[in-house]
Amino acid sequence: DGLIQQCGETMKETITSQTVCVYYNTAGTYGLDSVKKRCLEWLLNNLMTHQSIVLFKELSINIMKQLISSSNLFVLQVEMDVYTALKKWMFLQLVPSWNGSFKQVLTEADAWFAERRRELGADVAFLESEQGNPFLPVFSHLRLQYIISDLASARIVERDALLPSEWLSSVYKQQWFAMLRAEQENDTGPQEINKEELEANSMRCGRKLVKDGEYCWRWTGFNFGLDLLVTFTNRCIIFKRNTLNQTC
């Protein structure tokens, strides 16, 4: 037991994109819960920034479901980037024999899913097919309301035809009524919200700052007149509502 625990401590200190899945599975075999927890924490913090062919081939459906459903997932840029990462991951899960550079994965994935789309026909989404069905629980945790609010992203999702049409029609309806309420009823938004609901439905977006300094950027596309101006300086983040068409 002492040797296993010592190995566990070494594993926690040497987690990388090449070792994280092996460590997670090994920890499950030997009952090293603290190692499993550390591996999940590493993946939550690094999934979006350390993507690789090896990692995406090794990440199981169960682990990916835990990551995408977690409110602690660090999302670099926006929710559409999570969708794109899942598309690449699903392709590599289904075609593990594919080998090439990671820069080519998205192009290859798009071509492969386009071929499946032609085979299935226009009425069947890929996730509703026999091949795609096991991945449904993972994609169900995408926050689609923050994807379809951007025209370019909505067009890609419609073109890919990975998601069941019922998912999209439901969220289109939800967002349409939200817009009507905001424009015609002077909707001020929710007055009370619990922690679980906030964590499950809030917008996920982030930036990576490589060093200390002063940074400024805008997040647009909120559709209700909200244009955020974000400033990072002296390790403080300041959010302002941009009402003066300020530029960074």
Q: Mind describing the biggest β-sheet?
A: 3 strands, antiparallel
Give the overall shape, derived from the CA principal axes.
globular
- Overall mean confidence score, pLDDT: 91
**Helical proportion?**
40-55%
Give the N-terminus to C-terminus distance in angstroms.
56 Å
Topology, number of strands? 3
User: Order of helices and strands, N to C?
Assistant: HHHHHHHHHHHEEE
Treating each run of at least 4 consecutive H or I residues as one helix, how many helices?
11
> Order of strands side by side in the largest beta sheet?
1-2-3
Rounded radius of gyration (Å): 21 Å
Strand content: 5-15%
- Which stretches are low in confidence, meaning pLDDT under 50 for 5 or more residues running? none
Category by helix and strand content = mainly alpha
Description:
This protein has 248 residues and is mainly alpha-helical. The protein has 11 helices and 3 strands, in the order αααααααααααβββ. Helix content is 50%, strand content 7%. α1 runs parallel beside α3 and α2 runs antiparallel to α3. The longest helix has 20 residues. The protein is globular and about 65 Å long. The protein has a 3-stranded antiparallel sheet, with no helix packed on it.
Question: Summed up, what is this model?
Answer:
The protein has 248 residues and is mainly alpha-helical. Among the domains are: 75-202, no CATH class; 209-248, no CATH class.
Topology:
Elements: H1 2-13, H2 20-30, H3 33-46, H4 53-58, H5 61-69, H6 79-94, H7 105-120, H8 136-139, H9 151-160, H10 165-184, H11 195-201, E1 215-219, E2 228-233, E3 236-241
Helix pairs in contact: 1-3, 2-3, 6-7
